[in-house]
Design goal:
binds adenosine-5'-diphosphate
């Protein structure tokens, strides 16, 4: 296990491209951290700086309190798993798993013990004599993970390890990797562009934006319920949050037919007067009837909205409703038993606690006293 500390870490490539800006973070022993963001936002660059494969241009990076900027990759106690499994096709699973140890000259008995133990953790015992061409994508990825696991490492780095798998295998491997992490306990940094992967696997997530800017660092819960800015609000959650842009007049937003008083949602509504804001709510946060008070709590109110249904998509567990409120398009998630007819008018409520306001100028969330749940 290892404790990592980044202080104002920057990466400028030799061609002058500034790929990572002022990365500041402390990662505790054994944490599972996901770096998430669209392609090109600097996730792999950050991972490669941790691995020592890419030089840090400025700032400080510490492993267990020791300045590691110049530390060689070999001395960092890391193992890396990439998107391509990079297995040796002419070697069996057993040989692939033990290859690194064989190169290091480790005793055959020790290798045998380690290979079998690793295979057991990963459910590969019955495939040890197979060649990679006779394995499924998921099994290949497990061997790749196993090859990294077999060496005793403090830091486990993974760069989009599941991208080559089909949707079903990805879901299975997601929970397997999580379980492996639980049993091995190494500090893990995992790069993905897939917010669902990040949400389901991480202790904490780092959301990055193109240009290499960190937007927010927090637990999946914090990012989902307390996005600090518009980018994070739009990035986390599927389908994405609904955004309604409007100028605030008399404490209200006025977007076409919509007039919503912001007083119940923001702390200081006067400060927003005349400003352009985004009113936001998640598709899954809507209610079909007026929000009721939870036991022992005072009644919670909500906004009542009326929309016209353009299209519905029955997914089984949920229906996605594509609707419009005047000229504003929204996506709503409803119980399939309450799927509205296309072309009908659909009324719904947005509880105050599920409504967010963002300042268009700063893109930051406007302060609210509401308890989010
Ligand atoms: P991500 O992993 O988030 O997709 P990367 O860290 O791979 O992003 O890349 C971040 C940015 O840095 C991209 O715009 C990429 O084109 C640029 N980049 C990556 N490697 C180099 C390099 N060796 N020289 C110049 N620019 C690079």
């Amino acid at each position: 296990m290892a404790h990592l500390l980044f202080k104002d870490v920057n990466k400028v490539y030799p061609n002058g491209y500034h790929a990572v800006h002022d990365f500041n973070m402390e990662i505790k022993d054994g944490e599972f951290i996901c770096l998430v963001g669209d392609s090109g936002c600097g996730k792999s660059t950050t991972l490669r700086m941790i691995a020592g494969l890419e030089e840090i241009t400025s700032g400080e990076f510490y492993i267990d309190g020791v300045l590691a900027n110049q530390m060689s990759s070999r001395d960092r106690g890391i193992a890396m798993v990439f998107q391509s499994y990079a297995l040796y096709p002419h070697l069996t699973v057993y040989e692939n798993l033990g290859f690194g140890l064989t190169l290091e000259g480790v005793d055959a008995d020790v290798i045998d013990e380690k290979v079998k133990k690793t295979a057991k953790i990963l459910g590969l015992t019955e495939y040890l004599e197979r060649f990679p061409r006779n394995l499924s994508g998921g099994q290949c990825q497990r061997v790749a993970v196993g090859r990294a696991l077999i060496r005793k490492v403090n830091i486990f780095l993974m760069d989009e390890p599941l991208s080559n798998l089909d949707a079903k295998q990805r879901v299975t491997m997601r929970s397997e990797i999580k379980q492996i992490h639980r049993s091995v306990g190494s500090t893990t940094i995992y790069v993905t562009h897939d917010q669902t992967e990040a949400m389901t696997m991480s202790d904490r997530i780092v959301v990055m934006k193109s240009g290499g800017y960190v937007q927010q660092i927090g637990t999946p819960y914090e990012l989902y319920f307390h996005p600090s800015n518009l980018f994070v609000a739009g990035f986390i959650g599927e389908p994405p949050m609904n955004f309604i842009k409007s100028v605030v007049t008399d404490g209200k937003i006025n977007a076409g037919e919509l007039q919503l008083d912001l007083t119940p949602v923001v702390k200081d509504v006067k400060a927003l007067e005349g400003k352009e804001v985004v009113f936001a709510f998640r598709p899954e946060a809507i209610k079909l009837s007026a929000p009721k008070a939870a036991k022992g709590e005072k009644a919670e109110g909500g906004y009542e909205l009326s929309s016209n249904v353009d299209l519905t998509e029955l997914l089984g567990d949920m229906t996605n409703v594509y609707a419009n409120i005047g000229n504003v398009n929204v996506i709503l998630k409803v119980n399939p038993h309450y799927t509205p007819e296309m072309g009908s008018t659909f009324k719904f409520f947005v509880p105050y606690s599920a409504a967010y306001v963002f300042d268009c100028e700063t893109e930051l969330a406007v302060e609210s006293d509401l308890k989010r749940h």
